[in-house]
C-alpha cells in the first residue's frame, strides 16, 4: 500500500515586503560596518593610548630606578666614608691604647725604683733614720706614680670599651653597606631589563607586599640613624684619643716634676749630711787631739805624783832620822819645823794632784765615750750619705738622656753633690 506525501505549499510574499526586507538588510549591513569601523578606531586609539601610557610608565619607573640607584650610590659613598673613618679611628685608638699600656708597663720601673729607694733609706742607722724632706717627697712620688698608673688604667679601659663600641658600629656599617650594595646591584639589573629580554615572565601575585619590607621613610630614617651613630661615636673617639694623649703627657709632667723635686731633696739631704759629717770629722779630729793632750797631762800628773812621793819620802826620812838626836839636841828647831811644813805641804800637794789626776782620767773617759759616740754618729752619717748617693744612682734609671754631663751615673752624682774632694783618687 503506498503512502502519498503532501508537500507544504510555498508562500509567496509581496514586492513591498521584499523591498522592506532588502532595506532592512542594507541597514543592518551599514550598522555592522559602522560598528566595525568604530571598533577598529577605538581599538587603535586604545592601543595607542595604552602604548604611550606603558612607555611613559616604563620611562618614569626607569627614572625612579635610576634615581634609586643614584641614591644608593650616594648613601653607599657616605656609609663607606664613615666606615673608612671608623676603621681609621679604630686603628688610631688602638695605637693610643697601646701607647697607654706601654706607659703603664713603663711605670713598673718608677714604682720599683721609688720602693727600692724608700726601703734602702729605711736601712739608715741611729739618729739618721729621720722623717726628712727626702723621705716625704719619695713617699709623695710613690703616691703620684700609683695615682698616674690608676688613671692610665682607667683611660685604657675606657679606650677598650670604645674600641668595642666602634667594632659594633663597624659591623652595622658593613652590614648596611653590603645591603645597599646588593640592593644597588639588584636595581641596576632591573634598570637594564626591557620587554624584549628573554628572562622575563609572569609572576605569581606580583602585587603582594614582600615579607619584611618597610616604608621608605623608615629606610631613610635607619640610614640617617646609622650615619649619625657613626658620627657620634667618631666624635667621642676623637675626644677620647685626645684625653689619652693629654693624660699621658700630664702624667709624664707630674712624674718629671715630682722626680726633680725628689732628686733636689736627696741632693739637699746629701749636702746637709755631708756638711754634718765634715763637722763631725773636724770634731773627731779635735777630740782626738784633746784626748792626746789629756793623756799627756795624765802622764805628767803621774810623773809629778812620783816626784812628790820621792820628795815626801825624803822629808819623812829626814824627820825620822832627826828624831834620833841625843839629849838636849832633840830640839824643835827651824829645820824640824821646816821639814814638818814641807811634809804637810807635800801631802796637800799630793792630795791636790791626785784629785786633778782623777779629774783628768774622768775627763779622758768622757772624751773617749764622746769619741765613741762621734765615731758611731760619723759611721751612721757616712752610711746615710752613701745610701742617698746610691738612691740617686738608682734613680738615674728614671731619666732618659735628659742630663748631658759625666760619663757614668756615679760621676754625675759626685758632681751634683760636690764630693770630688771627699773621694780619694784612684
From TrEMBL:
It holds the Pfam family Tektin. One of its GO terms (biological process) is cilium movement involved in cell motility. Its main location: cytoplasm. GO terms for cellular component: axoneme; microtubule cytoskeleton. Residues 273-318 form a coiled coil. It comes from the Eukaryota. This is Tektin. It comes from Cryptolaemus montrouzieri. It is found in: Cytoplasm, Cytoskeleton, Cilium axoneme. Keywords: Cell projection, Cilium, Coiled coil, Cytoplasm, Flagellum. Transmembrane segments: none annotated. InterPro entries: Tektin-like, Tektins. Belongs to the tektin family.
